[in-house]
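Exercise 3.2. Students should predict the tertiary structure of the chain below and write it as structure tokens, then compare their answer with the key that follows.

Predict this chain's 3D structure.
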Amino acid sequence: MATAAGPSDTSVLNNTTAATPVPTNPHELALQSLCKQILKSRLFRGFYEERRYVDNVQGYRDIVSLHKSEKELNKLLKDIRDKLQMFYAQQNPDMWVGVTCGPLVGSKPTPGAMDTFIWAEIEDLAFGQYWFSIKSLRFRANEVVVKLKVVRSVDSEEMSEKYIKTSTVSTETAQADSTTTGTNTASAAVDGVAEKEVNLQDFANLFQQWYASFKQTIYDFMANDISKENLKGVIRFLGLVIVSLCSGALMAVKFLGIFAIRFMFEFSRLTHVLTPIILKIIEVFNKIVGGFYLLLAMIWKDAVVNRNQPKSAMPALEYNRPMYKSIQYDVRQRRSTGAADQQ
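Answer key:
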């Protein structure tokens, strides 16, 4: 439960809270780290409305509402609040999350503000509209509080200029509907100039937000991450890396030298063994190729050379009948002679 308190009520300004407990649950550690990473260095526009006493934490908290243009941050805050409430509903039911949604009891809604409120701790700040930067989330024994940093205030001149430009554009548009063509052209030119001025101002605000976020990130890094212990650790790590690289390079050179000597020795032995085999293989291929060319030469000689040459006429054998004498045998006389001999 929260009760209202005016800016002059300074009875409980310096709250004494218990020391931040160190979580031992790995799921809780992961959830806290994720929430911090999502919201860290977020720059947004909001309204510092009032200060109220919160019974759950026994202290005062400053209420900051979001501007209507901060829709993305509104979704992130609601999502983170739901996850934290769901987790701590079983772990720590008394845990109070410093992000609420819905209208505040006993106060009128601020024009141009959302119904999402951040309950933070802000010192010596007047009520009004400011640019805020989320430094981190702080998890206490019974509270989750958003740490805010005031970047700068939103000047009243800027807000009045925006309202004047908006009214001027609407007036010129109404007059353009009822005037002649020349008046329409002039009013359209004025509208174009006004729109260009608004767009340039928006770009200027965007670059200013980026610059403030970058500066805040560098500051947080220099303040939280750079310390004497971290510098010692970095120097020790770099020394170990350099020594490891040097020793590794020496061992690599030694290994390459031994490998080169072994390779040359084994390659010489391989060459000595394979030389006769290679010579024999070359000789076999030489004979095969030589025989093939010899075969082609013989075929060429028979097919081309001998075909074009005329064949020599060989002398014919003459049969001279008088040179040979025929002998006639008396077959009967021979048979009778043979029979007499047998008797």
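Discussion points: Residues 26-155 form one domain. The chain has six helices and eight strands.
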